[in-house]
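Risk register update: the risk of archive-format incompatibility is retired. Evidence:
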Amino acid sequence: MSNDNDLSGNGRGVALYVKEDVHCSLLYVDSKYDDFVVLQMESGVDEKLLIGIFYRSPNNSPESVRSFFTLLNLICSKFNCRKILVGDFNFTQIDWASVSGTRSSCSMCNKFVDILQKKISNTTCSVSY
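Archived output:
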């Protein structure tokens, strides 16, 4: 499943490959932000799991970053189920080892961390180099 929001032909976007026998549906989320896919799948009896895939360019405009934050807040508040949100967020100034106490000089980074801390109860972070 992929988004088809980027019609500029520059090759950007995100995709999520789902095995044929996995029952899921692509969710429509009204957003000015383009580079994301959100789907919902059955995760047990009467339980659903939302999976969101995101890409945020390090060169995004301030308006695009605001749209990204609005999208994250909307997804966290609109869908009442467990969520897995992954992607390339490109907030390189965040020191994930000390994120709980140290503030960055980057205000957008601090806003991103604030959203995560307010909306997500269990967080993990994997950094690969």
